[in-house]
Amino acid sequence: MSDDGKPRIRFAEEADTAVIARIHMASRSATMPYLPPQKRDHEQVTRWARDVLLKRCRTWVAVRDAEIVGYAALDGDLLEHLYLRPDVRRQGIGTLLLDEVRRHSPDGVSLHVFQQNTDARAFYERHGFTVVDTNDGDRNMENLPDLTLRWIPNSAG
């Protein structure tokens, strides 16, 4: 059954966690080279995805040609994660995931992004997110300055 290369979004399942872990690790190292080297191996990140991510967050995966190419995780109205496989960036898949998250967030969505992550900041700003707070890094594991962005439905008119 071919889905002609068009991505679709579905809820993540436990069977997806190894791929989610691979995407998480590959995306972070490809898009955020300023982060400290990853201390956790694939098995540990897979365990985290299964035991923490899928239990605490509503998590969706983007599937194209039967392969998972990205995921997004929402904890309440906080977008905890939105990662894509590095080779599928800038193809509209992040937008599809973000649209799914927003559909499930009638009161709006907040997220944290590293100040250095200019690509992500531009992506979210294009989608109507605005900066509501800045932080010197004392609230994230990496101790890097970050921003809180928020999107509120219909705020863009």
From TrEMBL:
<dbReference type="InterPro" id="IPR050832">
    <property type="entry name" value="Bact_Acetyltransf"/>
</dbReference>
<dbReference type="GO" id="GO:0016746">
    <property type="term" value="F:acyltransferase activity"/>
</dbReference>
<keyword id="KW-0012">Acyltransferase</keyword>
<dbReference type="InterPro" id="IPR016181">
    <property type="entry name" value="Acyl_CoA_acyltransferase"/>
</dbReference>
<protein>
    <submittedName>
        <fullName>GNAT family N-acetyltransferase</fullName>
        <ecNumber>2.3.-.-</ecNumber>
    </submittedName>
</protein>
<feature type="domain" description="N-acetyltransferase">
    <location>
        <begin position="7"/>
        <end position="150"/>
    </location>
</feature>
<keyword id="KW-0808">Transferase</keyword>
<dbReference type="InterPro" id="IPR000182">
    <property type="entry name" value="GNAT_dom"/>
</dbReference>
<dbReference type="Pfam" id="PF13508">
    <property type="entry name" value="Acetyltransf_7"/>
</dbReference>
